Amino acid sequence: MSESILVVDDNQEILEFLTEVLGDTYKVHAAESGETALQIMDNEVIHLIVLDVMMPGIDGFELCQLVKSNVNYCHIPIILLTSKNGHRAHIEGLEVGADAYIKKPFSPKFLQIQIANLLNNRLKIKTHFASSPFEDVRVMAHSKTDEAFLKTLDDYIRKNIEDTQLDIETLAQHMNMSRPTFYRKIKSLSALSPKELVDITRLKKAASLIAENEYSLSEISRMVGYSSQSLFSRNFQKYFNASPQEYFNALPR
């Protein structure tokens, strides 16, 4: 159960029902209000939100808009649940950034399929990014806000790529985030830890340098911030399924 689902509904019976329906597949966090949901998001890695529209205080539309407009959370897909009928309510849900919209009453199986589809589609993109030497980090963005976030982060990592001590504290500070918030953002957005994201960025740069055929593998290892060539080779093999030398030999001439 690697994915965490946040279920938000002011009806305790519905919360218990959804927790039971989803609990065998996902780690479920339950919130009876928008305010509680925001507190949970501040402390947990959340991969998807199932959100009721009709709630006192911060309602579902408002919470959806808050999530989608906040750089800390905007990558999280949201499924809105509503008893409202008509196209107007559906349009309003899409306008505030919802990824899916389900009318009550609904089939539990239908909800499970919607969740699985959203998560699987994003996982495919994350896997493709991690295993493709030349795929841009922005392929994982699902909004303009995330695209700008990833571009800024990637530019900073590449600018400091020779720094063997580049760490999560430095990156979080550059992105104006606390360390925990930055970690949750990267983990949920990419399925990678910040350290793994830095490693992959180093290796993508290495793949580009190998293709240029102007430097030795030991030089490239140092140029992308590896103090150990053996670690560089192991990580390259891990992500790209080929050693640096095998990768070079397979390049078209």
Automatic annotation (TrEMBL):
Molecular-function annotations in GO: DNA-binding transcription factor activity; phosphorelay sensor kinase activity; sequence-specific DNA binding
Pfam families for the chain: HTH_18, Response_reg
Residues annotated as domain HTH araC/xylS-type: 151-250
InterPro entries cross-referenced by the UniProt entry: CheY-like_superfamily, Homeodomain-like_sf, HTH_AraC, HTH_AraC-typ_CS, Sig_transdc_resp-reg_receiver, Tscrpt_reg_AraC-type_HTH
Ranges for domain Response regulatory: 4-119
Keywords, ordered alphabetically: DNA-binding, Phosphoprotein, Transcription, Transcription regulation
4-aspartylphosphate found at: 52
Domain of life, source organism: Bacteria
Protein known as: Uncharacterized protein
Keyword DNA-binding included in the entry's annotation: yes
Cited PANTHER family: HYBRID SIGNAL TRANSDUCTION HISTIDINE KINASE C (PTHR43547:SF2), TWO-COMPONENT HISTIDINE KINASE (PTHR43547)
